């Protein structure tokens, strides 16, 4: 559901445009979001997690990899979103 609702339809920086389809699991799928930022799914396991990187765009990091994990919890799903990044400059503040 995450792939269809969040990755393909939108969320975050506006409506995305898929620039590469990738594999059925979502792996290698790339999308362009607001500010011409390109995100690419690097690893994915249906119903368990998605890991993606920011490949291009005016984002103030030299490295950015995020993991979105899904865990069944009390009849629903716990979603944990973690991001690791290397900031380009100490003068730029990233809130998250």
UniProtKB/TrEMBL annotation:
Q: State the source organism's domain of life.
A: Eukaryota
Q: Which InterPro entries does its entry note?
A: Polyketide_cyclase/dehydratase, START-like_dom_sf
List the Pfam families: Polyketide_cyc2
Q: Which UniProt keywords apply?
A: Kinase, Transferase
MF (Gene Ontology): kinase activity
This protein is called Aurora kinase
